[in-house]
Specification:
- There is one protein chain.
- The chain has one domain: Amidase signature (AS) domain (Amidase signature (AS) enzymes, Alpha-Beta Complex).
- A hairpin with a 5-residue loop joins β16 and β17.
- The chain is globular and about 55 Å long.
- It is α+β, with helices and mostly antiparallel strands.
- The strands form four sheets. The chain has an eleven-stranded mixed sheet.
- The longest helix is centred in the N-terminal third of the chain and has 25 residues.
């Protein structure tokens, strides 16, 4: 009997240890991962780092997903899509919350994450296996409704197929976790609508998250997802990327399969340069569905040659507005110049012959002379159902004529000649310039009485405060937004890096060099704190 007791004293602990080891291995080392990383660390971890952790089993896609879902539940607020009614009190709906999501797909995402866990265990993982992606309310995902934040489209049938870009991301294992908010019909530099309310900047909720990819950028800044999709027809990637401290890329027309509208492109949004480059490399390439998509595919490395000795042009755009841009914009440009010099570049100061007063009306009339004009169909019949900025844009565009397209083409030719002569024919590999005239746009701009953007103490039309549409008219130029610093009111400020026509890799080269010398956000305590202060 004593021998049996002694035997069981030895064998039971050994047996239990073996059981625990099997459970530990089959769980994808999740016990170890949970003990090593906090939920915040997992939620904000760059995709390239997560992929390394997934490979070693130090973290799993399921753990990251749950960490991000917990942040959505804490910081986003109610999803209005679940209510299917209108937001009548724009200034109070989800007050104090980010409000970046229209609907979630967490149940499906959890299933996909478990499959991704298994793929990493059995060695069949793809390039983005288990990486979460927020999807803009514009991109076609099978079974998802795209309503463009429009009351007239709120009961639209869900899509029956993935769009070309979504196909590429899904094919590499990305997990689509939720749809992100946009301004109605993508027609405002701020993200709010009568259907979904006001989206707010996680760095400072009083201020806007930008538009039209505002929900995607706010979700990234808040740690709701690891990557997000954006589109850009007038700055819709670069505006919110600048406001949220993100990297965002407007590819040249046709690089990512989008549409045949030359003003438009789709692009990646990320918290780090490497994540942006990785996502763009997967998104890019031709599609049999889109006539304008470029072949062959361009490959985007994660690392680039130094810019030591290379010439880079810099324009502060002093003549864009009378009185110049804000002190915050100028200061960010000073910081960008310092970063370029630290990276070894030769900085060439220039100014382009373009200003908001003449350029912006020509751009908008040219844009609305394309298929975008269809947005105004039914406006008279359903005028009470549109958000104010849609109606305002109709007034701004006025009666369109064939001459408007001619004027846009003439402006483009003049701009292109100016850029070539002052920048690229002088041997510069890129142009660095402001993204915005000011970082300070109230989140409920035009949605609440008295809410307007200001510059030098005066109310200014928001359309004149964005410097991004230049490169939608001149759509063959690749442009990267690079986050530079935080303003005094805790709102990020970014700059644009413009490469020569279809020269994406030199734009990325300069962005990469700057990312190595500018103190990054989303590390070392530099995270959004969800303050709400004017």
């Amino acid at each position: 009997m004593k021998r049996k007791k002694a035997f069981f004293k030895k064998i039971v602990p050994a047996f239990m240890a073996g059981v625990l080891f099997v459970l530990f291995v089959s769980a994808g080392h999740s016990v170890f991962a949970k003990s090593k990383f906090s939920q915040e660390e997992l939620a904000y971890m760059p995709a390239v780092k997560l992929i390394e952790l997934f490979k070693t089993g130090e973290a799993t896609p399921s753990e990251v997903l749950e960490a991000q879902i917990s942040r959505v539940q804490k910081y986003n607020g109610e999803y209005n899509a679940s209510r299917r009614d209108l937001v009548n009190e724009l200034d109070t709906f989800n007050a104090g919350k980010v409000n970046a999501i229209t609907f979630d797909k967490f149940a499906e995402a959890r299933k996909q994450a478990k499959k991704a866990d298994e793929r990493w265990r059995n060695g069949t993982a793809r390039r983005l296996e288990g990486i979460t992606v927020g999807v803009k309310d514009e991109n076609e995902v099978k079974g998802w409704r795209v309503d463009a934040a429009s009351i007239l489209l709120k009961d639209r049938e869900p899509g029956n197929s993935d769009g070309p870009m979504i196909q590429k991301l899904r094919g590499e294992g990305a997990i689509f976790v939720f749809q992100t908010t946009v301004p109605e019909q993508y027609l405002s530099p701020m993200t709010w609508s009568r259907l979904y309310g006001v989206s707010r900047n996680p760095w400072n909720l009083y201020y806007g998250t930008g538009g039209s990819s505002g929900g995607s950028c706010a979700a990234l800044a808040a740690g709701f997802c690891t990557l997000a999709t954006g589109s850009d027809m007038g700055g819709s990637i670069r505006i919110p990327a600048a406001m949220n401290g993100l990297y965002g890329f407007k590819p040249p027309f046709g690089r990512v399969a989008t549409s045949d509208n030359a003003y438009e492109t789709l692009g990646p949004l990320a918290r780090t340069f490497a994540d942006m480059a990785l996502m763009q490399d997967i998104m890019s390439g031709p599609s049999p569905e889109i006539h304008a998509s470029i072949r062959p595919k361009l490959n985007y490395p994660l690392e680039y040659a130094p810019i030591q000795g290379q010439k880079v042009a810099v324009a502060y755009f002093k003549n864009w507005l009378k009185g110049g841009l804000s002190k915050e914009s100028d200061h960010a440009m000073d910081a960008a110049v310092a970063a370029l010099k630290k990276a070894g570049a030769q900085v060439e100061r220039i100014e382009l012959d373009v200003n908001a007063e003449s350029f912006m009306p020509t751009y908008f009339k040219g844009l609305m002379s394309t298929s975008m004009y269809a947005i105004f169909d039914g406006l008279d019949k359903h005028r009470d159902k549109f958000s104010s900025y849609v109606k305002n844009l109709e007034t701004y565009a006025g009666k369109l004529t064939p001459q408007d397209q001619v004027n846009a083409e003439m402006t483009l030719a003049k701009l292109h000649r100016d850029v070539q002569q002052k920048v690229f024919e002088k041997g510069c590999i890129a142009l660095v310039m402001p993204t915005l005239a000011t970082p300070y746009f109230p989140a409920d701009l035009e949605a609440a009485p008295g809410k307007a953007a200001q510059l030098h103490g005066k109310d200014v039309s928001s359309t004149n405060l964005i410097l991004t549409p230049i490169w939608n008219l001149a759509s063959r130029y690749p442009v990267v937004n690079v986050p530079v610093e935080l303003s005094g009111k805790n709102v990020p400020v970014g700059v644009q890096i413009v490469g020569n026509t279809y020269d994406d890799l030199n734009a990325f080269r300069v962005a990469y060099a700057m990312s190595k010398v500018i103190p990054p956000l989303y590390v070392d305590g530099r995270f959004p704190d969800f303050r709400n202060a004017k």
